[in-house]
Backbone:
């Protein structure tokens, strides 16, 4: 019998600082608390599922009879970036952080990059993506030099105007960087416009390290569908993915989710909704983040009606990015939410999990496989036995 699992990552929607947040400069970070304080925030569907019942979310009213099992997961990996977060969700804990470059990339890397691309470069230091094209876009257009920058994450980002460097050529430069730069992701950041009005386009593309074996590889090996929506395929370098659906943002991602829900498939539909992080978290836009959550919540109420009786819906995140945090504009080291919904299923309090990997391990268990993925399955807590189901239906 086929199983359909939908997992939606609300990119950066953390639910409070982890005990080791101080080591990452993130004491006091709490994305959900910051966002829920905005008058743009409205999440009645997430509330009914049990989001506000999660441990630590005591500043919002809990729901008396939540529809989903709920909990939060700590990050066991040494990092707080997109790559490490998603890999851990899918059963791979990273004991060592991916390398970062707070002082820019060393000359040996930049010299080789310039030699192989045939273009000079600008910046080479941590920078906001929108600020860097504002400050250096005009010089880039005049000289043709590539804008290279990084962040607190393990990333090598290349920004270029589409009229100066065609997008496909930019992707080729990223592939060259992928070969020579030891980072988690090389990211193409194309932009358009004129001086003072430069705008990043949706043709961003991530070139990630190939991860060790994850849940995606397990499912694909056993012949299951692994349908990627958004940047999931990029994050896993396509490893374990059977179908990729790139998107232009949250709205497009939700449209694709609706489309996949109308199809028959057997496996995992794995979606990342990136706007929370990219457009609002890093830009420290509290109201924008809150409005985006509200839009997702309104869509979610309709999406639930599309789910079949045995479908599983998981809603989680990959790290935090508190839009009210002022010490920096990077990700924040936080717990992630865990909502596990099956129509008519139990609503268990899953408490605080030791690792994001418990999610992937439970999905693996749901499909009946047993491998060496990291994590501990909580399947018995979110599944009725026949006797329990009988008692539940007779209440």
Residues:
């Amino acid at each position: 019998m086929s199983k359909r699992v939908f997992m939606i990552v609300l990119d950066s929607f953390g639910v409070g600082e982890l005990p080791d947040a101080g080591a990452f400069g993130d004491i006091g970070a709490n994305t959900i608390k910051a966002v829920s304080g905005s008058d743009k925030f409205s999440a009645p569907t997430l509330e009914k599922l049990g989001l506000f019942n999660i441990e630590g979310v005591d500043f919002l009213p809990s729901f008396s009879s939540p529809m989903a099992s709920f909990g939060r997961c700590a990050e066991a990996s040494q990092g707080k970036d997109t790559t490490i977060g998603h890999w851990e969700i899918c059963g791979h804990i990273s004991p060592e952080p991916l390398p970062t470059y707070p002082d820019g990339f060393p000359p040996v890397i930049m010299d080789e990059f310039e030699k192989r691309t045939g273009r000079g470069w600008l910046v080479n230091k941590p920078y906001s993506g929108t600020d860097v094209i504002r400050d250096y876009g005009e010089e880039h257009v005049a000289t043709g030099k590539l804008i290279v920058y990084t962040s607190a994450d393990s990333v090598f980002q290349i920004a270029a105007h589409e009229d100066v460097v065609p997008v496909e050529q930019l992707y080729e430069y990223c592939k060259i960087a992928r070969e020579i730069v030891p980072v988690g992701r090389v990211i193409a950041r194309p932009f358009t416009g004129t001086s003072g009005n430069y705008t990043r386009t949706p043709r961003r593309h991530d070139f990630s390290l190939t991860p060790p074996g994850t849940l995606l590889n397990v499912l694909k090996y056993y012949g299951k569908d692994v349908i990627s929506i958004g940047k999931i395929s990029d994050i896993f370098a396509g490893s374990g993915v059977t179908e990729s659906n790139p998107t232009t943002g949250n709205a497009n991602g939700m449209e694709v989710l609706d489309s996949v829900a109308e199809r028959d498939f057997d496996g995992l539909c794995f979606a990342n909704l990136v706007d929370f992080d990219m457009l609002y978290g890093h830009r420290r836009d509290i109201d924008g983040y809150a409005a985006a959550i509200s839009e997702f919540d309104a869509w979610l109420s309709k999406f639930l009606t599309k789910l079949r009786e045995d479908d599983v819906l998981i809603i989680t995140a990959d790290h935090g990015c508190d839009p009210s945090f002022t010490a920096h504009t990077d990700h924040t080291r936080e717990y992630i939410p865990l909502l596990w919904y099956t129509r008519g299923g139990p609503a268990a309090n899953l408490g605080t999990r030791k690792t994001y990997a418990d999610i992937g391990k439970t999905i693996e268990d749901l499909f009946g496989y047993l491998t060496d993925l990291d994590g501990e399955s909580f399947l018995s807590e979110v599944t009725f036995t026949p006797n329990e189901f009988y008692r539940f239906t007779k209440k």
